[in-house]
Records
---
Amino acid sequence: MKKMINGVESLLEESLNGFAKAHNDIITFNHQPHFINRKQGKEAGKVALVSGGGSGHEPLHTGLVGIGMLDAACPGQIFTSPTPDQMMAAAESVENGGGVLFIVKNYAGDVMNFEIAGEMLDCNHETVLVCDDVSLPKDHSTGRRGVAGTLIVEKIVGAAAEAGANLQECKALGERVNNATASMGVALTSCTVPALGKPTFDLGDNEMEMGVGIHGERGREQMELTKASEIVEHLITAIDEDLKPKKGQKILLHINGFGATPLMELYLMYDLAEQYWQEKGVEVVRSLVGNYTTSLDMAGASITVTLLDDELISLWDAPVHTANLRWGC
Amino acid sequence: MKKMINGVESLLEESLNGFAKAHNDIITFNHQPHFINRKQGKEAGKVALVSGGGSGHEPLHTGLVGIGMLDAACPGQIFTSPTPDQMMAAAESVENGGGVLFIVKNYAGDVMNFEIAGEMLDCNHETVLVCDDVSLPKDHSTGRRGVAGTLIVEKIVGAAAEAGANLQECKALGERVNNATASMGVALTSCTVPALGKPTFDLGDNEMEMGVGIHGERGREQMELTKASEIVEHLITAIDEDLKPKKGQKILLHINGFGATPLMELYLMYDLAEQYWQEKGVEVVRSLVGNYTTSLDMAGASITVTLLDDELISLWDAPVHTANLRWGC
């Protein structure tokens, strides 16, 4: 294992320290318990958006705290849910009379801990569960996993909260975006969790994992590594079968790198995915290409599509100023 | 070699197609010869900034074309200089009465080809040579290499050009920023150039390449892999010895990932580097952390420091809207 760290135990704390210093104009870092919260512009009565999950997916979620997006994020240990006390403390630090909306990726540990935090929390709160990974069937026993579509839910609901939407409106909007979003990923290599010191799973030199999760969970099948055009077709067909966008439908197309795949390859995937939709008469009107929901040092990428309407486009375009997503301000 | 591509021959063209589609609000892609140029807001008389170099370092340079930064960028094949005809065509497409400033990383091929392009160009033009890599001595036979400091030169001169600085002022400013900037990098793994299909150099499981170049060029020495704090001290001591910032000096601290190193580790490096300067009484007033000057899928990172004054801070802070660097608009 080759990592730029001082030790497995101190990695998260040291990394968050650096993050907090580099972005001290917009966020603060609470050490005990760990959470990142927003520094500026919390209007009285604004719904407070709180997310979190295991670390190792940066910039999700810590890098998305700021104006027009999350109010707080709770980073757990790598690929490990944060604890209810983190979530409670984070929620209490940003609650400002409008209630708290938890945005939770659908993993058993995260779901349970956010539930416990909610039970202990002494203010209005709701939860949006993100489950955009179409590599698993809709009726899977634990439901579908939350993956790169989470950022889109956070951005759009963040803009609505900033514009004054109330708690129920934010929850309904989050669920609407989640239902309008589908993702699927492919891994060319495993990631290596520092505490394990070795790759999470094995892949042969000529293999890829189709439908992989963002912790290296097994996907649909191991397949022979093939051309990008076939890989993209595989991913996007699964998304198409799930969302079934009609001719003329406007969409957001997000190509998300898992960490170790160069931007050149992500843009190449974008080209292929955009061609697919163009041929179907589906209109790609917004895009996001880069490493946003990562899996440490895994090589691979996912494709996410969100069906848009004018309201969602306008919320997507609204100003955002976080450490790792920023426009309009 | 595991890459998300259709073929070595078509990779660059397909990737640029995707890039152009994803960012068609701000740039256009000229196919014959290859260059990316800025779409909006070219004021008459504004100095046109043109850069370029081998591909594989994305988002440098194509991702830095737009308002407040480059007017055009010429992507060569991977790790290969663009050709003089690309540079000439790019320059002619953006020249608007204010002359052309070439911003060139100091590599023999790039320097020669930009010189030839300049000789053929029928308008005022100047060149700023970037040579910020302090892993080589100042009197090295071919000079020092241009690495991650190039982005800083492009951002600051881009802001000045936008504000109406003339060609000589832009050239002088670029040289001033270059002289105030020092970088050094370390590789934990090699990158793999698609056309070669195998790693550029060999590193043992317990080795790192200190002072590595952004094409995987050998650096100062191969060393045993050690803790991040020692790695950062090694890099930053070299930078300190070169720039010799005094107590109270304001600096920009840029941690640049080479492509496959997670953001967690880059922020950890930022924390360590910031501590070093704090102990020296040097004030880190601006930061940039992320993968900006990459080396395909290489694991590793570089540290860049620029000595700032009020003028440079204000130019750094000025609005920028490119595909991969954006703030204030």
Note: The domain at 182-316 of chain B is CATH 3.30.1180.20 (Hypothetical Protein Tm841; Chain: A;domain 3).
---
Amino acid sequence: MPQKPKILATQVVASSELFCIETVDLRFSNGEERRFERLAGGYNGAVLVVPLLNDDTVLLIKEYCVGMEDYEYYLPKGKVDAGEAMLAAANRELKEEVGYGARQLHELVAISQAPAYMRHRTHLVIARDLYEEKLQGDEPEPLEVLPLPLAELENWVMNGKITEARSIAALYLTRAWLDKQR
Amino acid sequence: MPQKPKILATQVVASSELFCIETVDLRFSNGEERRFERLAGGYNGAVLVVPLLNDDTVLLIKEYCVGMEDYEYYLPKGKVDAGEAMLAAANRELKEEVGYGARQLHELVAISQAPAYMRHRTHLVIARDLYEEKLQGDEPEPLEVLPLPLAELENWVMNGKITEARSIAALYLTRAWLDKQR
């Protein structure tokens, strides 16, 4: 394991309501110096919830994604609010986006996305023993909720029906976790 | 499927050397209007390469990620250059980051990351029949290359050794694809 590069300086170079971009000047252990850019913020982390209707079926939501300019199917997710417990955030997002709460919440593992550009960590949370409860979120239109039979996971991904990387990772990990429970 | 929202306006509100942030004003089919922000660019797409040393072993790289301020293990990847064929980009990244070329390249599927915030599509490419060839990349220090036995995938993810969402998704999809070939 090489020694970590030394951070010589960081500087905010651009920002908007949602994003903050900073430069980071690094000196690597071999003496090389480089300037990188990254997105600051997101340090409270995020949750991605796997709502198990039963041991063979997961609930997905369908939401309009302005990045892709299309509707996408994925798992409910959101940021952990300041001061909010991580599992509480998972249950809140589940109630807001899917219309269920969970009596059992289990953190599987935390994963990263674009680790070269963000500090963002996403906690994958399995939600079981569901009950109906709807909380009002800030969605501009109602989200469609769709059951995915876990046996169909490969097909849905290979056919392009599910594309989002964190959801795909979470669904495979959930399947492996369930296999171990049986 | 609801009708897609109408894009009323887009405007660049901040930019740096690497990032460009734009606002998008949307009117949803129910009449709700909202302003969102997204990262513009990345429209050529990216490649994420799964280098198979053999049918049981994948090669990972270890690289310093300034977002996480730590070294991370993941699959070789990079942007497709303007005018470059997607599979050629995959082979170039493989040569630059791992020191191998591949005689067989197969696109598995394309996935998204943060589809609400980026248009970014990542083509997952399985690379087989490898041969040694090193191309000079722009890395500040040599990358460590590490073989991952595919049978160990779950353990490495659950122990936090592999965290990057796209790599986890690609490795599970590769394992499923290999199972089908057998």
Note: The two ends of chain A are 38 Å apart (CA to CA).
